[in-house]
Write a structure and sequence with these properties.
Chain lengths: ~425, ~180
């Protein structure tokens, strides 16, 4: 067997897969990472998330320093250079150590020829740091470290706020908890956290959210395995406050996996008759796991409302339609979205969302409510999507939502990612006449 | 040329030489190795060469099959500092805990590829050491993975055999292409 990969070699593999659209951070940092028992996985995570977060800026700097682009088969050397630049510009490693370690790694890649190149580029970056950062300020892609198409789209959608959105995308998201208020009150749980030595504060949008001042392992959270709390961003937790609930109502969560919002609804209102659906068998298991840990009951179905598994016309009093989306509102949690998402993909998602709306609507009883949600910041998936639907569907009536700290659109309400607070999110509530 | 010269001194145990590691899909990797009958200086020379070849790769385990010697013999060293060399002659494995453990495995005969393989968590190995003395060893973690991986080689088995046919085919095509390129250069 070969010598196990070093941290940097593993990063090169993960980043190479992302650049080739063959993998994502989520797939790399799932169960797989546990199979490298001897590695400092926190360091691997820091490098990989950091390079993705600042990719467009680091890439811009590397282009300025390279005489000619590297060949495709040397993408490993390129990833190594990006990691070295990330270390120089964003980590506290002393510059000489960062440079020496990165140069040594080129040798381990079996590419000794690259040692001089890597050395020259990193020393150049160190020497010309101020000048290079000034250069990146002149180019929006570099400055905001987002792909061109996304900056243009956000600028068009939100001409006055898009810069704040781009900046917030580049700041790590906090770890947010949803307190299961059926089991413990928020203030009591805050006290438990204090005893455990974890500093935290309550969220402002909901009565259930607690934001940790610094992230920690779930195993350290008091009562996590007993279902006292779950990990969920505050914007997602809003779902329980926005969908009007009452005991005995028949509720459909049509795109439920992994079940975070399903559980939020069940915790907020006892006695709901809830059906959770999703079309991916693998992800269905996640819903079951979450329900099990929290001691909640729902009917879980693997199926797709757009195809054969229609659960019956005019059956439900409430429908939650948390559609698949570009996830542009959670870039700060999944910075690889910047590298993976394409405008074509967004167009396809917009179509899927429209299909889901049209498939869900007949399942709703007259007088019932449908809550549409995305973790997107793009109008095409949000207010424009709902506008088209309401225009096409005479029985659909738009109900205004009042959410603090949000931007009211013609249809629905947009939340933008906020530093030390919630993700970017969109909600629209529709009532069936 | 230099490598060939060293063979003239091959009965000097301090003189070691690098062996060529066979690469998938070489059919010789599929041969079943036969038990070692005598542990003598010739075998110990082979062992020294195998260690040098393994450390040079750099690797943490090497089976004789991989260097085209079809005897039940393997060397390994899973330590950080290359200071825990181990020799297993005629190894026999007994599973102590069959609970599967996943590890991202690679192989010196399948360069550049790593993939998840599940194997029993804990094993007991019986083998002879380099002096021909019998010993027993309980192994878990990386050591257990490595021993099972190398013993597989002695039976003509590779870690890619645990992957899907599709993945195996993709790896095979890519390696064949690399090997062809090397010949042309």
């Amino acid at each position: 067997m070969p010598k196990p990969l070093s941290e940097r070699q593993l990063c090169i593999k993960i980043l190479g897969d992302i650049l080739d659209h063959r993998g994502s951070l989520a797939s790399a940092f799932g169960a797989n990472l546990k199979s490298y028992p001897n590695l400092n996985t926190a360091l691997v995570q820091e490098y990989c998330y950091g390079v993705c977060r600042w990719f467009h800026q680091l890439d811009g700097i590397a282009q300025l320093l390279l005489d000619k682009p590297l060949r495709k088969k040397d993408s490993d050397v390129y990833c190594l250079i990006l990691m070295g630049l990330y270390q120089l510009f964003y980590m506290r490693t002393p510059a000489h150590a960062a440079i020496n370690e990165t140069v040594a790694e080129a040798e381990k890649l079996g590419k000794s020829w690259a040692k001089n190149l890597v050395n020259a580029i990193l020393r150049g970056a160190q020497r010309r740091q101020a000048e290079l950062l000034e250069q990146t300020e002149k180019n929006y892609v570099c400055k905001y470290s987002h792909p061109d198409w996304l900056i243009s789209q956000l600028k068009q959608d939100w001409p006055t706020t898009y810069r704040t959105v781009l900046d917030a995308d580049n700041v790590r998201a906090p770890m947010t908890l949803r307190v299961n208020i059926a089991k413990i009150s928020r203030s009591e749980y805050l006290a438990k956290l204090a005893i455990a030595g974890l500093s935290a504060h309550q969220g402002v949008l909901t009565s259930t959210a607690i934001i940790l001042n610094s992230p920690c392992d779930v195993a350290l959270l008091p009562g996590f395995s007993d279902g006292m709390v779950s990990i969920q961003d505050e914007a997602s937790q809003l779902v329980a406050a926005l969908l009007p609930l009452a005991p005995g109502l028949k509720v459909l969560d049509a795109c439920a996996a992994p079940g975070g919002k399903t559980c939020a609804l069940l915790e907020a209102q006892a006695g709901l008759d809830l059906t959770a659906m999703d079309n991916e068998p693998r992800r269905i298991m996640r819903i079951q796991e979450n329900l099990g840990r929290l001691d909640l009951v729902a009917t879980v179905i693997c199926g797709d409302i757009c195809t054969d598994s229609n659960p019956g016309a005019e059956t439900f009093d409430r429908i939650l339609l948390d559609v698949p989306c570009s996830a542009t509102g959670v870039i700060r949690r999944h910075p690889d979205i910047k590298l993976l998402r394409t405008p074509d993909e967004v167009s396809r998602l917009v179509q899927t969302q429209a299909d889901l709306l049209h498939a869900a609507w007949p399942l709703l009883k007259p007088g019932g409510f449908l809550l549409y949600s995305t973790c997107s910041t793009l109008k095409a998936e949000n207010t424009d999507q709902i506008a088209l639907f309401v225009m096409a569907m005479s029985t659909a009536e738009h109900v205004r939502l009042d959410i603090a700290d949000s931007t009211s659109c013609e249809f629905g309400t947009q939340l933008f990612p906020k530093i030390n607070s919630h993700d970017g999110f969109f909600y629209a509530l529709l009532r069936k006449r | 040329m230099v490598l060939k010269l060293t063979n003239y001194f091959s009965n000097d145990p301090d003189f070691m030489s690098l062996l060529t590691i066979l690469e998938f899909p070489d059919p010789r990797l599929r041969k079943r190795a036969s038990p070692v009958s005598v542990v003598d200086d010739t075998l110990r020379n082979t062992i020294n060469d195998m260690f040098e070849t393994m450390y040079n790769a750099p690797g943490i385990g090497l089976a004789a099959t991989q260097v085209d010697i079809h005897k039940r013999l393997l060397v390994l060293d899973v330590s950080e500092n290359k200071d825990a060399p181990m020799v297993f002659i005629n190894p026999e494995i007994e599973v102590l805990d069959s609970e599967p453990m996943g590890y991202e495995e690679g192989c010196l005969s399948v360069p550049g590829y790593f993939d998840m393989v599940n194997r029993p968590r804990k094993i007991l190995v019986q083998a002879l050491d380099k002096n021909g003395t019998e010993f027993e060893l309980e192994a878990e973690g990386l050591l257990a993975v490595c021993i099972q991986h190398e013993v597989d080689h002695l039976d003509g088995k590779l870690f890619v055999d645990y992957l899907s046919i599709l993945k195996r085919q993709r790896i095979k095509n890519k390696l064949l292409k690399d090997q062809k390129q090397r010949v042309n250069v």
